[in-house]
Design brief:
This protein is of the alpha+beta class and 209 residues long. It has three helices and ten strands; from the N terminus they run βββααβββββββα. Strands 1, 2, 3, 4, 5, 6, 7, 8, 9 and 10 form a ten-stranded mixed beta sheet that branches.
């Protein structure tokens, strides 16, 4: 899922953008750049923990589900391969109550090389909000031949219960800057992110029926 922060699709910039509606979407510094299927995308410049200037991307949407179902969906390998659009593999390792690691392979279109990511997830519960912090780790699995390892990944899921079996979900992430121009990557970012979040929402709502 995460490589869609540096990947993109044709015509995305021509689609209309709806106004911000959620508290999560209004976090300091974010500017809305895209909207589709009741999912909004936002961006802001930040300096990551490695001291590098990067762009952080965030998706925000609501779903008819519960926080517990969302967390279980995030750590489910069989479901992960279904909602991570463009992923060729999705495995969950070291699956414990508050932490787990995911391994994801992404089949990306030319001119981008295929990528993989090894990501540690750490869960923290704060009242009606659950946060799952994400960071890349390099000492868990070796690099697969022919793929590029995603580096300097950091971000989080924020899951907020709104009551009446509705949750607001945001996913924000940044990675090491790509050498590929934004003119090429931005459309893929927008498309992959909205399609993945839409697929996740559909699975969540099916699971909550």
């Amino acid at each position: 899922m995460l490589k869609f922060v540096s990947a993109a699709i044709l015509f995305a910039s021509s689609w209309s953008v709806a106004p911000d509606k959620t508290d999560v979407a209004k976090e300091a510094g974010f500017k809305q750049v895209y909207a589709r299927e009741n999912i909004t995308l936002h961006e802001r410049p930040i300096v990551n923990r490695y001291g590098v200037d990067v762009r952080e991307v965030k998706a925000v949407f609501t779903a008819k589900s519960s926080s517990a179902v969302v967390v279980e969906m995030l750590r489910n390998a069989d479901k992960g391969i279904q909602w991570n659009i463009g992923a060729g593999a999705y495995d969950v390792l070291n699956n414990e109550k508050l932490t787990w690691v995911t391994y994801i392979e992404y089949d990306l279109p030319w001119p981008l090389n295929d990528h993989d990511a090894v990501l540690r997830h750490s869960l923290i519960e704060k009242g009606n909000i659950i946060e799952v912090a994400i960071e890349s780790v390099d000492d868990v699995l070796p690099l697969k031949k022919g793929a590029e390892r995603m580096e300097q990944v950091q971000g989080k899921w924020t899951i907020r219960s709104l009551g009446f079996d509705v949750v607001e979900i945001s996913y924000q992430v940044s990675t090491k800057p790509s050498a590929v121009p934004r003119l090429i990557t931005d459309p893929i970012v927008h498309y992959q992110m909205t399609k993945s979040m839409s697929a996740l929402r559909e699975l969540l709502e099916q699971a909550s029926i």
